[in-house]
């Protein structure tokens, strides 16, 4: 068997993050103030984010230097390996070359610490001593708790109730790394109390948990808020993934024809795909494919316009594909892919045709997850099984067209804490769920009241 693993030396952790805004023909529209509808200024964001991150949010510089202390912390698990998936290729019976970048080697088991670490660092630099955040499946909350621990900060995590009850291990990881985790909606905030009064048995949602964490940060001097996806600076931090993958592919004497990632808020996809936008801008032909769940089809069926980032309408209005800020997801297993909106940068790139979006049902995705576990050994998190499903589609398409392609996919996390989902799949009790058209119509009516893009 030829070599399968391309490992970079520690010294080759990227020195800069890549800012895709520098290579886009047009920038995405600006975020708007939720009260006035006017473009939001840095001063308005200052109560909830440190200035360094606000600066990165609006930066158009192509390269943003990574501070030494952040690179030191990255060294705990970076560079991450790139694998040639020889056994998966054999199982699929394809002569396409498939490479996967494995982000599950981080302490938290996913790509999320790539941004949690710099966010904790910049907060500490500006004298913040406590960070509040939300988490869905718990991957973000655990990554931020780890990063706060590394930089000596307190961490408060509002965890969506459904996951709080169903995923006790992530909660324990947060506590082990010194964070405090409460079920959301919680009695600790006005937003949480208001929702509990109306709907005491609600399973919660990311939109609700964001409202709680933003309120926590806005009402305490020692605390700022942190978001694990969606925003420009988060996507920026994730570009270490694609930059490393490029260097590793060069060592394998390969260049990708297709780059694939799953999308929830868009950050791991951006991390692997954005660095290739520079090559596309230079004339290379590379397709960028984003895979999402059919149960939360933000990019493939959502409305493209301004929407609130959260349920209580405290967060800025963002220009994005959205299912509506009132969206409460069905109980699907890919916890990390259930946000109602999408990163404005990814939405803009889908809108302009630079990124292709596809939606898949969870059973066909888990089938690819099990295939991957049985061929390559790693049990993928439920989220990247969507990317693996898209890889399968690419392989079939290449066969039909009679060509061999090189496919790069982001295996953004392992599924070792997702055994109940695999158990359901293997037992045949997992069901598919298609978002009913009626729910989209409800959202469309709400969104019609909000500013439109390009107006
Ligand atoms: C959080 C998470 C996601 C979804 O978030 P993105 O910002 O779209 O990357 C996907 N996969 C894993 C493993 C996650 O932890």
How would you describe this protein?
The structure is a single chain. The protein is α/β, with parallel strands linked by helices and 455 residues long. The chain has a domain at 4-12 and 78-109 and 233-447: 3-Layer(aba) Sandwich (Rossmann fold), CATH 3.40.50. Helix content is 41%, strand content 16%. The protein has 19 helices and 15 strands. The protein has helices spanning 42-45, 51-58, 68-74, 86-92, 113-125, 139-150, 161-166, 168-176, 190-198, 206-218, 232-237, 240-251, 267-281, 298-301, 344-351, 362-376, 382-401, 419-427, 437-447, and strands at residues 5-6, 16-18, 63-65, 82-84, 97-102, 130-135, 154-160, 180-184, 223-225, 258-262, 287-293, 303-308, 317-322, 355-360, 406-411. The strands form four sheets. The chain has a seven-stranded mixed sheet with strand order 1-4-5-15-10-11-14, with helices on both faces. The chain has a four-stranded parallel sheet with strand order 8-7-6-9, with helices on both faces. A two-stranded antiparallel ribbon has the order 2-3. A hairpin with an 8-residue loop joins β12 and β13 (317-322). α4 (86-92) packs across α16 (362-376), α9 runs antiparallel to α10 (206-218) and α12 packs across α13 (267-281). The protein is globular and about 60 Å long. The relative contact order is 0.15. Bound molecules: pyridoxal-5'-phosphate (PLP). Pyridoxal-5'-phosphate binds at residues 110, 112, 139-140, 229, 262-269, 336-337, 381, 383-384, 412-413. Residues 110, 112, 139-140, 229, 262-269, 336-337, 381, 383-384, 412-413 line the site of pyridoxal-5'-phosphate.
